[in-house]
Fold:
Amino acid sequence: MVDKLGQGVDLRQNYRPYIPGGGIKQDHLLFHVYPRYNNDYLEQVSEKYEADLYTELDENEYNQFAKILSDE
Structure:
């Protein structure tokens, strides 16, 4: 298992709170661990969209985010 996890994993976390009168009877937290492999299906599919996900911010966008994230 260590060899497979050495290539990376995706983690998915779900929190489901108790809802009175609902289908969930108690709070619970789930963690799903998905082993990843070099050039696996998810990587191949996501490469089509990766360029759009990781574009550089222009100066105006950068300044707007910097203002939001600053403590001032």
